[in-house]
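## Example pair
The file below holds two records. Each record gives the amino-acid sequence first, followed by its structure token line.
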Amino acid sequence: MSIPAGDVEVPALVRRLAGDAELVPVWRNGIGGLTFRAGDHYVKWGPLNTETTMADEAERLAWAAPHTPVPAVVEHGADASHEWLVTRALAGRSAVDPRWIADPATAVRAVGRGLRALHDALPVAECPFDWDVAARIAHAQRRGRQVPTELREPPPIDRLVVCHGDACVPNTLLDDGGAWVGHVDLGALGVADRWADLAVAAMSTEWNYGPGWADELVAAYGVDPDPVRQAYYRDLWNAT
């Protein structure tokens, strides 16, 4: 996943969805999907995805919106080959905006605090979505992935929360003062141990800011490092 560089061809459907708004490419994912800023909206477009769909994300955004800052859904749909999602823009910039790549200490702490706030805000008992280990392994196997036997027995649950599902640092938005203001890309949101998110968020600091920031994120979340759970959920992420 990356911020697009150079000229980006705008799909005809995206141009239609954006109307007269200026389109600014802001994100390219690993399967060829693109996200554009279009005035005060964002347009996500990409090939049909076997992992999470934009319809999944629209449903989860609508559920989470009363509890925590997430984009409001305007429209979503799909055809035979592609899907799309239009949302209203939230204030703030991604934690991997060049502004925050240059100040990882501020960004990492904001991501950790934002993830804790998300977990504290979303009501587990009311959540209709599951993201526990058994569900993830079953989903991976339906897609033809073989999950190692040693990952089939997770560590005891520390605390059940409604997890983001893709808590990598780009999916937290920060304001100009360096405080978290919202989350995006919630297509896998569901109930699981909080370390399923926390381990991945900590791991992703190395991809985006370089080594040495994982413990800082965990501390900002408000817990001590847990090497066993962190290692397990990192490996599960990579396997599924």
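Second record, same layout:
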Amino acid sequence: MNAPIGAGTASLSYGELSLDNTKMKDGSSWGAGTMYSYPLSKRTSVYAAYSYFSNDKYSLPMQTQLAPITGGGQIGIGAVGESNYAIGAGMTHSF
């Protein structure tokens, strides 16, 4: 979802991933984020963003099932039962 605020644009997002297990407890992970982008010129803007992710204590079985597909170890955002956040800022320029 985007909304104009002042000269810039604010964005909000939410996502959830859940697994319906038959032989073990169901696992779920969710995340939410916000970002604000401010134009400096017609082609250049700056932005700041914040994201929060949360895994319940049963989220790990779903993440390890994907490992054979990617050829790596455990994948996903964070560890089982763990919450994480990310902060970012940057500049974009269109050529």
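Notes on the second record: Strands lie at 2-5, 8-19, 27-39, 44-55, 83-93. The chain has two helices and five strands.
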